[in-house]
């Protein structure tokens, strides 16, 4: 199948592990690190250095792009990540957890939402910097290997010219398990929001 410009486009493609199609680290990381050092890769804010576990029973994405990126801590430590951009997302049974060891014990902050039938979490212009993502995924009209600077499906976010990118008209992912370092969104509607702190927890999923 070809698009309107005559370029070959893959059709509906299924992967058991979404993490298998993230940017090849050996190629991307060296170029991204050099880009940060030269100021070529924009960093909009310093990350904390901690990671969050994010789980959902289902993620539906209308417009999806992915490319390599670098997030930087305040002390200058860089982290190579896969940046995933979604124009419009809906998530069912969302769970986000951050675990912090303290002198008097280990505690986990949980945020949960979208647990009521027919009332999912919604987000617009979502951008996630992640270490890993797993689940059962199906993509519609996916294009793998595009120049990261020309990605448009996921909204206004795009990577640097010459870097590996991929995008799809849509994505449906079941049993989402993600480790993320940052999340940005134009709007993020958390229906049925619940925030709790729990001791000695493995977070939203083990590992």
Q: What does it look like?
A:
This protein has 207 residues and is mostly beta strands. The protein has one domain (13-38, 46-199). Helix content is 6%, strand content 54%. Strands 1, 2, 3, 4, 5, 6, 7, 8, 9 and 10 form a 10-stranded antiparallel beta sheet that branches. Strand 4 (94-102) and strand 5 (105-113) form a beta hairpin. The longest helix is centred in the N-terminal third of the chain and has 13 residues, at 25-37. The chain is globular, with a radius of gyration of 17 Å. The N and C termini lie far apart (40 Å).
Pairing-aware structural class of the strands and helices?
mainly beta
| Largest β sheet strand count, sense and barrel closure | 10 strands, antiparallel
Evaluate the radius of gyration.
17 Å
- Average pLDDT level: 84
Any low-confidence stretches, pLDDT <50, length ≥5? 1-43
Helix count, per DSSP? 1
How widely separated are the two ends? 40 Å
Number of domains: 1
> How much strand?
over 45%
Total count of strands: 10
List keywords for this structure.
54% strand; single chain; 6% helix; 1 helix; 207 residues; globular; ten-stranded antiparallel β-sheet; 10 strands
């Amino acid at each position: 199948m070809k698009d309107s410009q005559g370029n070959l486009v893959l059709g509906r493609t299924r992967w058991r592990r979404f993490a298998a199609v993230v940017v090849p680290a050996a190629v991307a990381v060296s170029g991204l690190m050099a880009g940060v050092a030269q100021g070529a890769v924009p960093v909009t804010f310093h990350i904390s250095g901690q990671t969050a576990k994010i789980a959902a029973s289902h993620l539906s994405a209308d417009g999806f792009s992915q490319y390599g990126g670098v997030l930087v801590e305040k002390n200058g430590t860089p982290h190579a990540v896969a940046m995933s951009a979604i124009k419009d997302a809906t998530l069912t049974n969302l769970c986000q957890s951050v675990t912090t060891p303290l002198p008097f014990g280990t505690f986990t902050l949980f945020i949960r939402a979208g647990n009521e039938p027919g009332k999912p979490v919604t987000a617009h212009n979502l951008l996630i910097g992640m270490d890993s993502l797993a689940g059962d995924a199906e993509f519609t009209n996916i294009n793998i290997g595009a120049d990261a600077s020309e990605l448009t499906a996921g909204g206004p976010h795009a990577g640097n010219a010459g870097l590996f990118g991929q995008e799809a008209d849509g994505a449906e992912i079941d049993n989402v398990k993600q480790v993320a370092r940052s999340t940005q969104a134009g709007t993020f509607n958390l229906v049925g929001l619940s925030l709790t702190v729990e001791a000695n927890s493995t977070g939203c999923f083990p590992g």
